[in-house]
Amino acid sequence: MTAQEANAQFKVVVVGQVARDLVLQIERMPDDGGSVPVQKRQELLGGKGANQGVACRRLGADVSLVGVLGDDQAGHTVLAQVAADGMDVNGVVIRDGAPTALLLDIVQPDGVRRLFEDVDSRVLLEAGDVRASEDLLRSANAVLIQLQQPAAAVTAALDAADPDALVVTDGAPPDNQTRERVLRRAVVVRADVEETEALVGWKPADLTETIEAAQKLLEEGPRVVALASPTGGNVVAWPGGHVVLPFIEEEPVDPTGAGDAFVAALTVGLLHGQDPETAAWWAAVAAARVVGKAGGRPELDLDEIRQAAANARRR
Amino acid sequence: MTAQEANAQFKVVVVGQVARDLVLQIERMPDDGGSVPVQKRQELLGGKGANQGVACRRLGADVSLVGVLGDDQAGHTVLAQVAADGMDVNGVVIRDGAPTALLLDIVQPDGVRRLFEDVDSRVLLEAGDVRASEDLLRSANAVLIQLQQPAAAVTAALDAADPDALVVTDGAPPDNQTRERVLRRAVVVRADVEETEALVGWKPADLTETIEAAQKLLEEGPRVVALASPTGGNVVAWPGGHVVLPFIEEEPVDPTGAGDAFVAALTVGLLHGQDPETAAWWAAVAAARVVGKAGGRPELDLDEIRQAAANARRR
């Protein structure tokens, strides 16, 4: 039995951003008024929601996406890409008259990237968009919710999830009321350094403070807290313990989507009944696989990740 | 009689680049690893050939474009835009399996722009592409040729133009043999500072040297030479005289396409029987109209430009 077959029972719904992702690789940035040739162009499915969805799918889960596209040509192209990547599109809303979000990712040879985000407010989720997918959400084993979406949509997703579902939130809550709801309901809370500040009220300056922040958040309800450290790498904490995950990529090409693969693999690991520390190592390996490739859409193989995670952990 | 009607007899063929032009306006460039929101996104018809063609069309000429698009979705979108802008598309080649050129134009509030050019060699013109439009070229009153295209295509265009046609070249010749042919055949030669170096063998350091370079080029055949000066503005020279054109834009927004409007208006002015000095003032005004607007596709009105040029000249 392959990992994918073993895993087919897991239903994951991702609530978040779906976008066009235009990735341009260049040798160097042009000066003011200057021009540079593009070494490589890719036009991909993108956005945090789609990236997390693709990663969960590649790790073997059944994935439904809940997000909003414009009714432009790009929207229809992106919708076809979501379907081609094996995800269910019934929760994807095509909004009349709105432009599909565009993420432009300019990547240099050393893996340094610059992101230009064009996200019209009309392609953010509304509570009604989420409620229209209530049945999907209620039947999911895991619900991944991006907190960059408006508060009403986040709340609707938290409310619709099954009480036994693994609710995973990613990012900073849009307001204090939503923060309370998130910490009360989420099983897993994931944040980068800036987002951690929004969650705990102060910005961790080092690894020790990141661990402190994770422990403080655990006291408010979540069972697993995963925070990026300002010193690089990630901390994953659970009641009574934590692990510090180093960056384990070899040749960084493009950090886009590494955080999304981290969340996806952490979720899938926990769905597989792994303890938080093991799931955290899966997450670190999945993130490393993404950073080695331009464009935020990783090839991921669960068996390979499981093995690489065991090896990385032993070191 | 409107200017457009008076002008309808002029047939202009533009031989050069046709592309998608993605224009993003931002407040500031992101740092390494950072992200910024996009203030405004435009997806336009672009490329020097298309920009010069649109400008000639808006100045009232009948315009045919000779250029190459890919057979992708973008190519078909761009082709429709060329037609919607009132240009003849019979000379536009759709190349099997090639990606349509993408120009990404990132513009800041002060009008500073950075250009990212993704032009696959397969969407450059081949001699056969140009020869397939021989009848178009032979019947044109003016032929605008971009010297960024391969030597064989440039030569084919020079050869196909009617002996009485106003042949206008823009840019630096790809090699020395092409340089000889260009200077022998072109009536008008246009170049920026870098391109002037390729034409005369040295780079003008100031206005005096730019005038010297123009006079040297006039000795080799062209009747009008238009060179950008490193000190800003342009020099237009003819046997026995020259004029220095200042930049006359008020609020610079995006310099994209200003040089293309300059060439187009200079060409249309000369077709209208204006002396080089008058045509040069038309060109300077047309360029100013473009710089005041993002995206390189100006609204141009011949009567307004004629009047504004007369006013600017009087100052």
TrEMBL record, chains A, B:
* Top-level taxon in the UniProt lineage: Bacteria
What molecular function terms (GO) are annotated for this protein?
Answer: ribokinase activity
- For this UniProt record, give its keywords in alphabetical order, as a comma-separated list: Kinase, Transferase
Gene3D superfamilies annotated for this entry?
3.40.1190.20
Q: Does the keyword Transferase apply?
A: yes
Enzyme Commission number(s) of this protein: 2.7.1.15
Extract one GO cellular component term from the record.
cytosol
Q: Which Pfam families match?
A: PfkB
Q: Which residues form the Carbohydrate kinase PfkB domain?
A: 11-297
EC class: transferase
Q: Which family does it belong to?
A: Belongs to the carbohydrate kinase PfkB family.
Q: What is this protein called?
A: Ribokinase
| Source organism of the structure | Arthrobacter pigmenti
